[in-house]
């Protein structure tokens, strides 16, 4: 789930959205002189500035000889050069950083024929590091107080390539080493449309994730609710106490789901729910009608069908959770059954 990157690009229609095999970063190369393709890619993920090193706040350098000033400036520039040298020496040919890279530093990358990308989102960086087996580096400093960069911190991918999607340049990381990473490029007329698509996609991906987690699915389209309702109604009749009423009410409330589904699809809710209940009643009482237990609503045709065969399924885990939460919410509301009302007595005012 983390390995799926969703990019939104304006233009074209929603049907032109497509899947790209590789993780796309929503930024281009940092300089035009860099190659557009590097293969095989060795990726370094950094979390600091590759800019001319400045002294930290509060550090004072007292200089007596003006010639020393130039040396200090030179040393500041050389420190960044050394850092970049260490990166390239370790074998990195793709450098991603969440911070900035200045022109002086870019020059070294261009000369080495490496791709550098600056201002990468932290979230993207984490996913890239996970997919390529890289380690995100916050500082070069080691225990001895020197600066080192070990080649074991580098991630691997088959290739890193810059492609043009819509009007933007994106850097694609393809053939990642540890986990497969893909990107979904969504196209749409405007931001609202794209946001809506992204939300729907997120829901769909979450459902797939839940299904894979629980490994069990149930028939959708009101099948579970109808079956439960029929079962609970029968269970209610076997009880002799007032619990019977509560269970019967619970059973009836479950039917709201198929009813709302039918009403939203502009179908005859009363008839459809009655048919659905009949199917599930038969499935639970007659041994030869067991196959009717996965009957649910077909909302496009307005009929009842076997939803397991039709491929309309839901993760069992979600169903259990939904019913649990709804029940808990109802119980919470029922607990608050006292209302204290202070009515102002008009009679008293007259006496005063």
In short, what is this structure?
By secondary structure, the protein is of the alpha/beta class. Helices cover 43% and strands 20% of the residues.
Written overview of the protein:
The protein is α/β, with parallel strands linked by helices. Helix content is 43%, strand content 20%. It contains eleven helices and 15 strands. The strands form four sheets. Strands 3, 4, 5, 6, 7, 8, 9 and 10 form an eight-stranded mixed β-sheet that branches. Strands 1-11-2 form a three-stranded mixed β-sheet. Strands 12-15 form a two-stranded antiparallel sheet. The longest helix is centred in the first third of the chain and has 24 residues, at 66-89. It holds the Pfam family Cpn60_TCP1. Belongs to the TCP-1 chaperonin family. This is T-complex protein 1 subunit alpha. Its main location: cytoplasm.
